[in-house]
Amino acid sequence: MDPATLAPPLVTIPAPWGIFEALLLLTFTAHLLFMNVVLGGSIIALATGGWRDTPAAALAGTLPAALALTVNMGVPPLLFLSVMFGGYLYTASVLSAVYWLSLIALAMAAYYLLYIYSYGWKKGVSRAPAMAVAVAFLLCVSFIMSNTMSLLQRPAAWTAYFDNPGGTILNLDDPTFFPRWLHFVTASLAVGGLYVALSNARAAGRDDAAATAKKALGLSWFTRATLVQIALGIWFLLALPTDVMLLFMGKSGLHTAVFLAGLAAVAAALYFGFRGQVWPTAVALA
Q1: Which of 241, 232, 197 lies closest to 217, judged by CA?
Q2: Nearest Cα to 146, choosing from 185, 115, 117, 113?
Q3: pLDDT tens sequence across 250-259
Q4: Are 166 and 98 in contact (CB under 8 A)?
Q5: The last residue of a domain, from among 171, 206, 239
C-alpha cells in the first residue's frame, strides 16, 4: 500500500502556488526570529541569572511579550502550510494528536511562567525554578513541532498508525529528526545571544561597563552556538536522503549556490562576532 494514499486529497488553491510559497517563507522567517529570541533568551536568562552584569533582568521584561508575538507570528505560516500541504499536515497531526494538542497547554503554561519570572525580577526575588520549567515546556513545544513536521514529509512512516492508532507516534527513526531539532534549538541560542548583544550595543558604545559586558556575553553565546550549529548542520546534511543531499553538493546549481551563500554568511558572521562587531554580525545574517 502506498502510504501517501492515507492523506486526504489536496484541494485546488485560489492563487498561484508561488504566492503561497513566498508568503509561507516570509511569515515563517518572522516567526523564527521571535521564537529564537524566546527560546534562546530563556535559556540564556536561566544560565546567567546569578552572574554579575547578567542580561537576565532585561530579558525577563522582554520574554513574555516575545512569546505572545511568537505565537501570533506562527499562525500565518501554519495557515499557508495548511493551504499548500493540508492533507499531509492533517495526517501528521492526527498521527501525533496527543502531543500536537498538548502544544496549546504547554505554550500557555510557559507564557505564565515567564510572567512569574519577570515579576520576580521586579520584586528582587529569584524565580529560577519558574524559568527552568518554562524552558522545559518550550523545548517540548519545539520537539513536538519538529516531530509533526518531519512526519509530514515522510508518508512511509504513516503505516505505524496500524500498530499505534492512539495518536502517540514519534518519528524518532527518521535519521534527520535529531539533527534537525538540535540544529533549530542551537540556532535559538545563537540568535538569543545576538539579541542580547544588539540590545546592549548602543549603551556599550557610550562606554557603559555593564552594557559592554552584556554585549560581550551575547556575542560569546552567538559565536559558540554557531560553531556547534556548523557541526550539527554537517550531521543534518549527511542524514538527508542521498538524492536530496546531492542537490546541495553540486547536482543542482541553484541549491548549491544558495548553500554556499549561506556558508559564506555564517563565516562572515563568525568573523565579525569574534571581533566584537555587533551590527556587521547582524547584517551578515540578514
Answers
A1: 197
A2: 185
A3: 999 999 999 9
A4: yes
A5: 171
